[in-house]
Design a protein that fits this description.
seven-stranded mixed beta sheet; about 55% helix; elongated
């Protein structure tokens, strides 16, 4: 596999998993040697910096990795070069980097020397990147990586979904510092590097800290329109039709879960995600389970439909809390209205129209993450699959159910999310510390 093909596959994967974005790559010189230097928040950083830069960035990598099958091939494809990390071999690694820059390559160096322990740049920066630029005369290109600390910090074994943004800044010309004493020139270049990186880094770190604080806030009471009313309405309908306490037990178990989340369950990121998505999951699953008990036809291809709905909900892991909650609320009401449509026009095909149609309409109106893909795909599914399964004009009430749910979430007030609800901080900020170190 060539580097370009490997980079294209990785970029597609990262855009899905992390809604990765990169700007300013035109600031990386198209030819000649240069030094790329960025903050180092995660394991992913060399890949994040390389994905949208056409030229390979040569990062230092532990030489033992090159002897590992498959891994060695991959790190070579990314442009890494082997370095002996044993004590006393640092000068040899620096000399290898200097020769690469003088030969016209891009060399990537993280001046912190290790992954960040806090999300922002460490206080002490190593001089290698600045010294390399000063000695070779190559431009020093600062870059800021935002969101990667939340996605995969040093203390976590595996990554989590998060928005990641890379910004390349205008190069620092070392010629402006060559008249200064060597130590002063290195310090001045490092200070300018820090200033440019932190100008866009620290607002994002501040937003991440707010999000982490929100994940620890107490859970809300059961939300009226998205949790309490759908569960109680379903319980009443099912008991009225079946006169069976066992048939309504799942509804009351869900209410019990909401109270346990409020009073007992410790609050963290995972519990917030489960709570925020629980209303739609409960209503969709419970309605599907209750249809035969109500004398209505069960949906055909339920596993396929649930897979489509799970895919439709995936982008909301990256969205603002209130928008994600509105989607969950709307999907719950789409399932309830689809239950009503079943009484008007019973058919096992109806859920394949009503629920994906709501998801498509909501993604299109709100311009959510991946909406340009999600809206047409879901819309095509909602139109084509029911027709392929033999549906016709009798499906009109089911289409109306999905569209009414869409209108419902547009005009009802949106409750607060159990977790982060605000956008990330501004892209630029005049202050370099934002009070984070005060």
């Amino acid at each position: 596999m060539t580097r370009d093909a490997f980079r294209a596959v990785l970029e597609a994967l990262f855009r899905v998993l992390f809604t990765y974005d990169c700007v300013g790559e035109e600031n990386v010189p198209a030819t000649g040697g240069a030094v790329v230097s960025a903050n180092h928040p995660s394991y992913l950083d060399p890949i994040l910096l390389s994905l949208q830069v056409k030229r390979p960035i040569r990062f230092m990598a532990w030489d033992a990795l090159f002897r590992v099958p498959v891994v060695g091939r991959l790190v070579r494809l990314l442009g890494a070069f082997p370095v002996d990390t044993r004590q006393g071999r640092g000068r040899a690694a620096y000399q290898s980097a200097k020769e690469l820059v003088e030969d016209g390559h891009l060399v990537g160096i993280f001046p912190e020397g290790k992954r960040s322990r806090s999300g922002w740049m460490e206080e002490d920066l190593r001089a290698g990147a600045a010294r390399l630029a000063l000695e070779t005369g190559a431009p020093l290109v600062p870059a800021t990586i935002r969101g990667a600390f939340r996605a995969w910090p040093y203390f976590r074994a595996l990554p989590e979904p998060a928005k990641i943004h890379v910004r390349y800044h205008e190069p620092i010309d070392p010629a402006a510092y060559r008249s200064m004493p060597e130590d002063d020139a290195v310090a001045a270049v490092l200070a300018e590097l820090r200033r440019r990186v932190e100008r866009t880094l620290l607002p994002g770190v501040k937003a991440d800290r707010k999000i982490d604080a929100l994940y620890g806030t107490p859970a809300p009471w059961p939300r009226l329109f998205s949790e309490a009313v759908p569960a109680l309405a379903l319980a009443l309908l099912v008991f009225w039709k079946t006169r069976s306490f066992a048939a309504v037990a799942p509804a009351y178990a869900y209410i019990g879960y909401l109270l346990l989340d409020l009073l007992v369950i410790p609050q963290r990121r995972l519990t917030k995600w489960i709570r925020n998505g629980s209303a739609a999951a409960f209503v969709v699953l419970y309605v599907g389970w209750a249809l035969p008990k109500l004398g209505l036809p069960p949906a055909i291809g339920r596993a396929a439909l649930l897979s489509v709905l799970a895919g439709a909900g995936f982008p909301y892991l990256y969205e603002r809390g209130r928008l994600a909650l509105a989607f969950v609320q709307g999907l719950a009401w789409a399932a309830l209205l689809e239950l009503g449509a079943q009484y008007l026009a019973p058919t096992a095909i109806g859920p394949h129209l009503a629920l994906p149609l709501f998801c498509a309409a909501f993604a299109w109106e709100e311009r959510t993450v991946f909406w340009s893909y999600a809206a047409p795909i879901l819309g095509a599914y909602a139109l084509a699959v029911p027709l392929w399964l033999g549906g016709g004009v009798a499906l009109l009430p089911h289409a109306i159910a999905g569209l009414v749910a869409w209108g419902f979430v547009r005009y009802l007030p949106r409750g607060s999310a159990s977790g982060p609800a605000a956008d990330e901080g501004p892209e630029e900020a005049p202050s370099s510390t934002l009070g984070l170190r005060d």
